[in-house]
Amino acid sequence: MTSVTKDYAAITDGINHGISGLRQTDALETITAFSAMSKAAMGDGALDKKTKELIALAIGAAKQCDGCIGFHTKALKRLGATDEEVAETLGVVVYMGGGPGLMYAGDAWTAWQALKQG
Predict the structure, then answer these.
(1) pTM of the entire structure?
(2) Mean of all residue pLDDT scores within the chain
(3) Do residues 6 and 109 make contact, with C-beta atoms less than 8 angstroms apart?
């Protein structure tokens, strides 16, 4: 049996390409507003940026969003997350999401292992 692993770097690159194209359309205002909302939501506050990114990774995995997994694992690498922090976060995904949570937690762990090296 052949194992197929998702290329999260390629997934996020493809999404970034698509978003760049959307910025050239009438959707620019919406894309700009989403970017501003992201910046406001993810900045340091009562929760620090890394904690918020761990939450975002958990939600991305629970919602089965490959792009979310890719972008948030990249951010967690930049923020100095540890294997233990990511593993515990993904454990909560499994707890809350059962079997489907386990499937995407496994994908998110694979993404973390691949993207933290790059």
Answers:
(1) 0.91
(2) 94
(3) no
